[in-house]
Design a protein that fits this description.
The strands form 4 sheets. Strands 3, 6, 8, 9, 10, 14, 16 and 17 form an 8-stranded antiparallel sheet that branches. The chain has a 4-stranded antiparallel sheet with strand order 1-2-4-5, with no helix packed on it. It has a 3-stranded antiparallel sheet with strand order 11-12-13, with no helix packed on it. It is mainly β. It has a single domain, classed as Glucose Permease (Domain IIA). It is globular. It has 3 helices and 17 strands. It binds zinc ion. The site of zinc ion has 5 residues, from strand 6.
Length: 205
């Protein structure tokens, strides 16, 4: 499986020895300044020790037709004024309609339909939850079961459904708060947000 490279300092942001305000680049793209999240030290240690080389060798990169990492995980300064905002995931730009693949086998625990994430899914795999936002389609309750429907993409995902690794679970869209088609991909380990870039790097190692 091909894993697109990601800048080391973004991937291992807490290990780069940076604190306070710093400048983030991915490849040659300057993403502006960001603040490090105040990590919960205990959770961070547990998370780090949960990552071992080769652990995710069979995990799936979450989007087909990947173009670029467009926004990293962490706090970002208020470019338009105001306070900093916590970006709880990694943004992966891809053409509208690109298929999104399930990172790791698990159970759909939530179908999302809100102003921010748009149409999305939360899938639980053991201690991990993976969040997918800005997908195409909509959520409807069918026979009492919340269901993500993207007819043109041939996608129908029910809450409670079990999904294997790399299953097509939807398509990149523009739902929710977004200025361009991308997958917002979030990862939670034992109820703490973690940087998906760390995991992507581990998948490639
Ligand atoms: Zn995002």
């Amino acid at each position: 499986m091909h894993i697109p490279k990601i800048d080391r300092c973004v991937a291992l942001v807490k290990r780069c020895g940076l604190s306070g305000s710093f400048t983030i680049t991915i490849g040659s793209i300057l993403l502006g300044s960001a603040l490090l999240p105040n990590a919960n030290a205990e959770a961070d240690t547990a998370y780090r020790s949960s990552i071992s080389p080769g652990q995710w060798a069979s995990a799936s990169f979450p989007v087909e037709d990947f173009q670029a990492y467009t926004s990293p995980f962490g706090y970002r300064g208020g470019v338009t004024g105001g306070g900093s905002e916590f970006h709880s995931g990694l943004d992966l730009a891809a053409p509208e309609g690109s298929y999104i693949r399930n990172w790791w086998s698990g159970t759909v625990v939530q179908t999302i339909d809100d102003d921010r994430c748009g149409t999305g899914l939360v899938i639980k795999s053991g201690d991990w939850e993976h969040v997918y936002c800005h997908m195409q389609g909509y959520v409807e309750t069918i026979d009492g079961v919340r269901t993500l429907i993207d007819r043109d993409g041939g996608i129908l995902i029910q809450q409670g459904q079990q999904l294997p690794t790399s299953a097509r679970i939807g398509r990149v869209g523009m739902t929710g708060r977004t200025t361009g088609p991308h997958l917002h991909w979030g990862l939670v380990y034992q109820d703490e947000w973690v940087d998906p870039a760390t995991v992507i790097r581990a998948m490639a190692s």
